[in-house]
Every structure is written in structure tokens, then in C-alpha cells.
Write a sequence for this structure.
């Protein structure tokens, strides 16, 4: 009996079946694999560069760029450095991506919600919109909108509305505040930001008091008023101190033989085509994400909300949509990243985005270095979006989950 | 717990040993790679053999500009650049159709030839010193061009100096893009440039009036303009703002291949100078030493050391004709009708005939 028992005692798990060993070994193995692959990749690039005598280096960044950039939101002249030209081009891309992401999200939500509508026509119209825009390659979209913009009259025969708004195939120009003095303008912008922050604090405090005491004290009105008063006061003080208003309205005006518009703000034709193309394309994907999010919220939620007497609109706004957000936000971030990266097709339709300018730069600077730089720039942009998106996502998560 | 710890330590040790073995293996692989590289190095010194073994010449060119490279009614790619490519294929492979043409945009030219993935780049490439040092070896100038501006006549301007504050359309990755800025700076014109990747988009933007002017090499302006419906509404301004010598480029690092392509260009030029055209290539001795040497009937101009056949010139001239024929067919009366006589693109000297055009800048290394 004793011998039998001894034979049955626990002998320990063999090494190859020990979960602890297996986990560690697989970690180490995959780590090694990654290191080997990545280093092989870089060694290979290094060899190729050396073998083919491909120029490489970053000393060009401080050299004068000496090449035109078609459209730019920052001031640019050809004697500026490569580095600055790079920043100018990156700003062009950032403008597209910020405006594009906002418009695509709004449009995507509208179409996505319409798709869920009980109204047959609205729902089917949304379906057609989604299926049309997401099933045609983006480059074709861009060319399509490019030719649509080109079909607008040229600048000399363009539409002029009230001598303020100019619409032609070179772009859309409108009045825009322009700083009279950089220091003054910057100070006022800071003051305005402070005013908005103070206004929102006031609103929050009053809301809380309203909740506690039950007395209505118009928090929204008070908050806005506080912000406006502080902003206006800052404006007056700065105007008096600086001798001029921080900003004046600059009017667009045709100039010279060719009637090109100067002054005001011009959204270039290439940017318009690019934005419409990117926004319609991306919003069709966002619409489907929104639909999936709304459908993921249990039916009981809607039914309960209607049962307590909330309207359909209120149900969507206060019950369904907030819950759907936790499903919507992660894929929505991906779509925003896609939009940003897709804007690199802009060169096809003549908008000076980062990729377009960088490709031109390869003429007078080492291509390998330029491409490393633009990869880093897109990566930085994407990671920033991811970070913001993930913070928002954390904010929107179910409490307790 | 203790036992588990020992097991983990053992496992890590085993892994380390395995790793050691792995790195050794990697080193072995590296040695193999070194050997391979040496082989590649050897074969790299002879692109000619690679092309012969492949049975096909790979050219990088274009199909979007009449005269240089465009599709004809039956879908064949024809043009000056394409013919130069065909001439090289006839010399090396004896068959002008043994070519594979890769269509690339202007900004792709540098990387394409740098990487050595094509044998010849013939895509209206302007010779510049930095391109010569960074892209590949520039063979020789086969067409002398210069940058100009095209505008709509309705603007009523007659000089590029009147382009103050104008928007100008330009193709990305071209020398014209760089020259435009210089010209604008020098003359205080404050020109804004709209840069497009493809020539087609440039033309569309110009025709719609998104830009006031269109800049490119003059010959390309003429070529692209010839395809406009309303050609007469447009005018090319008189100023030529730059030197644009165009010709083929070969990858760096293979002198023999460089020499072969250079010789093919020389054959085209001397074919015309000696009056040997595609229709009249003699296959027996003519008694004219120079012609006989060109055709490989008597003597040599270095065919053997170049590694091409003794009668390569016969193949070239029969298949694509001489320089003059190529010009006339694509850029001259048979194509976009650019005048040649007494211009820069006429032959520099006539060797034997008295009727040959004189005084141009087209010449090549003497065939000896």
C-alpha cells in the first residue's frame, strides 16, 4: 500500500508543460524574433544606401529651400530654410486633417443616424450615400471633385457676392481678421482663451448652485456674458495701450493683371476638392461605425426610454447615443487617422500637402532623409490623434468597466 | 516554488544556448550572403549580360506627351524617348521590340534610376550636375530644350515679364519647378506655383484657368498644346528662361553599360551624318571607310570591347533609323512639327554629304 501511494505522489509538471515556462519562453522568443527582423530591415537599408551610393544626411535642413510652395497658411518665401518649408507643408496637412476630421465626423454621424431612421426615404438615401462613397477608390473621388472645382469659372470671371465673397476655381476667398501687430494679437488671443475658461468656470459654479438651491440663476447666459465682457475689456485695453486694435478685418480684393485675389482668407481650390473628397469618403465609413454603435445598445434601453415618455430625439441624444459612443469611439479614431494619411494623395490634385512638398524636396535634398522625415511627421500626427482619442475614450467608458 | 524557480533558470539558460547557436547560424547565413553579394557585385559590373540574359531591355519612360512618348491610335507607345529605348534594344538584343517600358511620373525618375531597377531612363530628363552625381550617369544630350511659358491669348500679354502675381501650373519633380522660382525672384514677379504630380492634371488645371500660365520645356508645351482643341487660343511666350538639355540616363556603377548606350547614341547621330537611313542600310562594303566601319563591314569602332555585335549599327539603323529619322517621325513633320533646320537640334557637322544640315549642336563621339 505504501509503495503504491508513493508512486502516486505529485511528481511536478514537466518543464515543457509548465505554463510559467511556456509563457516566458514565448515572450523571449517573440522578442528575439522582432529584434532580428527589425535589425535585418535596417541593416538591409543601410547596405542598399551604401551600395548604391545614395546620398543621405540631414544637413540640408538649414539650407534655403528656393522652391515654390503653391498654397500655404503660414508665411513662406523662397529664401526660407528646408526645415521651415517642411513645417509650412506639415501645417497644410494639419489644416486638412483637423477640418476634415471635424466635418467627416459630423457628416458621418448625421448619415449614420439617418440610416437608422424610420423614414424610408431618409434611410435609403443614407444607404445609397454610404454604398456609393465607400465603394469607389479615394483617388477617383479626388479627381472627380478636382474636375468639379475646375468647372467653376476662372478667377477673372468668378462669382463675387457683395464684394466680400469671391468664388472661382482658384478657391473661395472671404474677409478674415488679420493681426496688426503680432505681439498685440497674441496677447489678445491669450486673454480670449482665459476669458473662455473663466466663463466656463462661472457656468459650472452657477449650475452647481442651481442644483443645490433650486434657484434659477441662468448659468449659460452668465458664463457667456462673463467671457464676452472679459474679452471685450482686454480688446479695449490692448487697443488703447498698443495704439491699434489687435486685429483688423482684411478684405479680399482682386489684384494685378490676372485678378488673383489677395487679402482676406482664401481656401484654395485644391484644398476644397481634397476636403470634399476626403470628407465624403471617410464619412461613409464613419456612418457605418455609428450605425454599428447604435445597434449595439440594447433594445430595452430604447423601449424603456420611450416608456418613461422621452421623445425619439431625446432618446437618441440622452440614452442611446451616449451608450453607443463606447463602441463608436475606438474605430472612429482609426477613421480619423485614415483621413489624415489619405490626405497624402493631395499631390494628384495640386494641393501642397506634406507629401507633395516633400516629393518636390527630393529634387534638391536626399530622398531617403526626406522620407524618414515625412514618416516621422505622419507618425507624430497619428499618435497625437490616437492619444487625444484614447483620452476621450477613457472619459466615455462605462463607469466601473 | 523553489523547484519552479530552478526550472525557469534552466529554461532561460537553454534559451540562451539556443540563441547562441542561432546567432552563429545567422553569421553563417551572413557569410553566404557575402558570397552572394560578391556574385551580385560581379554580375553588377555587367548590366549588359543581365539584359542579354533577360532578353529584354527595361526602360523608364512616359506615355503622356505626344512626340516624346504617347499612345498612337492602335495603342502602341511611340515617341522620341521610346525610339531611343528601341535603338538600345536593337543594339544589344538585335530586336527593337524587346523592350519593357515602365511609365513613371517626373518625381519618380530619380529613385527609379538610383535603385537600378531599370536599364535606361529616357523620359525627357534634363541634365543637371546634381542629377548626374546623384541619379545616374547622364549619357549625352539628344535634344536641346529650354523652359518657356504658355498663356491664353485672351490675357493679352506678350512677355513672361508680365506674369506679375500670376498663378503658374508646373509638374512636380522637374527642373522647370526649380527654375520658375529663380525666374520669379530675379524679376520680382511674385509668381505662385500650383504643383501637380501628373502632366494631365497640370494641363487640366491650365485649360480651366485655375492657373494663368503653364510652364514646361518649350518642346513639351508645343507637344501638349498640339493636342488642345483650341490650340490657336494659346501662345508660347518668347522668353526661354533656362537650358534644358535632354537625354538618356543609365544607373551609376557600370561603365561598360554607360559606354554601350553612349555608342548607340553615336550610331544614331553618325547614321544621319553619313546618310545611312533605315531604308538604305547597305549590307556589303560601300567603299566608304567611315560607312563601312559604322556598319561593321570593315574595321571596328569598339564593338568587341563593348560586348555588342559587329553589325549592331545595322540592326539599329534598320530598326529605328538614324537620328534625323527619329526626329522627323516624332518631333518633326511626322509628329509635333518642331522646326529643326538651322536650329540647335540640327547636326553639328556633315561628314561626307553636302546636303546635311549644318550648324546645330547635335554631335557625338566619333566612331573609331
Amino acid at each position: 500500500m505504501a509503495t503504491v501511494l508513493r508512486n502516486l505522489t505529485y511528481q511536478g509538471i514537466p518543464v515543457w508543460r509548465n505554463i510559467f515556462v511556456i509563457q516566458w519562453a514565448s515572450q523571449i522568443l517573440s522578442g528575439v524574433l522582432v529584434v532580428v527582423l527589425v535589425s535585418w530591415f535596417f541593416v538591409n537599408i543601410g547596405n542598399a544606401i551604401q551600395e548604391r551610393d545614395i546620398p543621405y544626411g540631414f544637413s540640408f535642413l538649414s539650407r534655403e529651400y528656393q522652391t515654390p510652395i503653391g498654397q500655404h497658411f503660414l508665411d513662406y518665401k523662397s529664401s526660407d530654410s528646408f526645415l521651415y518649408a517642411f513645417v509650412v507643408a506639415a501645417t497644410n496637412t494639419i489644416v486638412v486633417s483637423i477640418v476634415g476630421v471635424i466635418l467627416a465626423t459630423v457628416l458621418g454621424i448625421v448619415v449614420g443616424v439617418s440610416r437608422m431612421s424610420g423614414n424610408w426615404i431618409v434611410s435609403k438615401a443614407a444607404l445609397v450615400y454610404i454604398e456609393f462613397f465607400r465603394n469607389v477608390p479615394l483617388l477617383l473621388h479626388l479627381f472627380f471633385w478636382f474636375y468639379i472645382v475646375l468647372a467653376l469659372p476662372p478667377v477673372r470671371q468668378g462669382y463675387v457676392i457683395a464684394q466680400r465673397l469671391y468664388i472661382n476655381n482658384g478657391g473661395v476667398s472671404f474677409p478674415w481678421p488679420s493681426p496688426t501687430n503680432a505681439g498685440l494679437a497674441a496677447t489678445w488671443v491669450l486673454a480670449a482663451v482665459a476669458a473662455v475658461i473663466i466663463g466656463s468656470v462661472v457656468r459650472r459654479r452657477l449650475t452647481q448652485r442651481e442644483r443645490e438651491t433650486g434657484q434659477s440663476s441662468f448659468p449659460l447666459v452668465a458664463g457667456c456674458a462673463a467671457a464676452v465682457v472679459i474679452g471685450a475689456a482686454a480688446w479695449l485695453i490692448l487697443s488703447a495701450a498698443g495704439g491699434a486694435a489687435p486685429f483688423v478685418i482684411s478684405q479680399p480684393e482682386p489684384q494685378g493683371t490676372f485678378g488673383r485675389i489677395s487679402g482676406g482668407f482664401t481656401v484654395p481650390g485644391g484644398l476644397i476638392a481634397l476636403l470634399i473628397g476626403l470628407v465624403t469618403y471617410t464619412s461613409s465609413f464613419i456612418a457605418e461605425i455609428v450605425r454599428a454603435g447604435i445597434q449595439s445598445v440594447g433594445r430595452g434601453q430604447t423601449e424603456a426610454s420611450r416608456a418613461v415618455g422621452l421623445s425619439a430625439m431625446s432618446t437618441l441624444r440622452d440614452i442611446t447615443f451616449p451608450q453607443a459612443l463606447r463602441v463608436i469611439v475606438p474605430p472612429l479614431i482609426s477613421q480619423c487617422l485614415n483621413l489624415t494619411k489619405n490626405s497624402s494623395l493631395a499631390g494628384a490634385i495640386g494641393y501642397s500637402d506634406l507629401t507633395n512638398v516633400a516629393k518636390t524636396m527630393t529634387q534638391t535634398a536626399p530622398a531617403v532623409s526626406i522620407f524618414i522625415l515625412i514618416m516621422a511627421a505622419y507618425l507624430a500626427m497619428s499618435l497625437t490623434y490616437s492619444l487625444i482619442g484614447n483620452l476621450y475614450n477613457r472619459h466615455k467608458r462605462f463607469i466601473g468597466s | 516554488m523553489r523547484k519552479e524557480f530552478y526550472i525557469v533558470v534552466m529554461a532561460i539558460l537553454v534559451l540562451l544556448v539556443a540563441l547562441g547557436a542561432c546567432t552563429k547560424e545567422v553569421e553563417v547565413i551572413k557569410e553566404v550572403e557575402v558570397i552572394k553579394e560578391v556574385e551580385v557585385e560581379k554580375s553588377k559590373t555587367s548590366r549588359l549580360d543581365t539584359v542579354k540574359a533577360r532578353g529584354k531591355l527595361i526602360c523608364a519612360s512616359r506615355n503622356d506627351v505626344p512626340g516624346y512618348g504617347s499612345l498612337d491610335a492602335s495603342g502602341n507607345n511611340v515617341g522620341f524617348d521610346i525610339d531611343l529605348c528601341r535603338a538600345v534594344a536593337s543594339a544589344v538584343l538585335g530586336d527593337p521590340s524587346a523592350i519593357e517600358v515602365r511609365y513613371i511620373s517626373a518625381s519618380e525618375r530619380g529613385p527609379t534610376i538610383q535603385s537600378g531597377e531599370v536599364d535606361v531612363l529616357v523620359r525627357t530628363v534634363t541634365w543637371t550636375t546634381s542629377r548626374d552625381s546623384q541619379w545616374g550617369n547622364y549619357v549625352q544630350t539628344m535634344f536641346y530644350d529650354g523652359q518657356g511659358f504658355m498663356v491664353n491669348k485672351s490675357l493679352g500679354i506678350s512677355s513672361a515679364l508680365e506674369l506679375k502675381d500670376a498663378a503658374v501650373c508646373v509638374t512636380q519633380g522637374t527642373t522647370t519647378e526649380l527654375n520658375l522660382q529663380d525666374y520669379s525672384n530675379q524679376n520680382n514677379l511674385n509668381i505662385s506655383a500650383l504643383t501637380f504630380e501628373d502632366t494631365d492634371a497640370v494641363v487640366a488645371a491650365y485649360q480651366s484657368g485655375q492657373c494663368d500660365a503653364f510652364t514646361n520645356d518649350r518642346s513639351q508645351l508645343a507637344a501638349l498644346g498640339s493636342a488642345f482643341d483650341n490650340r490657336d487660343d494659346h501662345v508660347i511666350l518668347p522668353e526661354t528662361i533656362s537650358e534644358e538639355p535632354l537625354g538618356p540616363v543609365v544607373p551609376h556603377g557600370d561603365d561598360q553599360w554607360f559606354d554601350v548606350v553612349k555608342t548607340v547614341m553615336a550610331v544614331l547621330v553618325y547614321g544621319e551624318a553619313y546618310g545611312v537611313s533605315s531604308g538604305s542600310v547597305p549590307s556589303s562594303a560601300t567603299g566608304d571607310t567611315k560607312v563601312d566601319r559604322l556598319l561593321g563591314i570593315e574595321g571596328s569602332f569598339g564593338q568587341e570591347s563593348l560586348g555588342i555585335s559587329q553589325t549592331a549599327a545595322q540592326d539599329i539603323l534598320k530598326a529605328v533609323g538614324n537620328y534625323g529619322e527619329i526626329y522627323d517621325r516624332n518631333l518633326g513633320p511626322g509628329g509635333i512639327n518642331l522646326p529643326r533646320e538651322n536650329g540647335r537640334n540640327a547636326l553639328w557637322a556633315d561628314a561626307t554629304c553636302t546636303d546635311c544640315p549644318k550648324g546645330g549642336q547635335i554631335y557625338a563621339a566619333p566612331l573609331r
In short: The first strand of chain A starts at residue 159 and ends at 161. The mean pLDDT of chain A is 89.
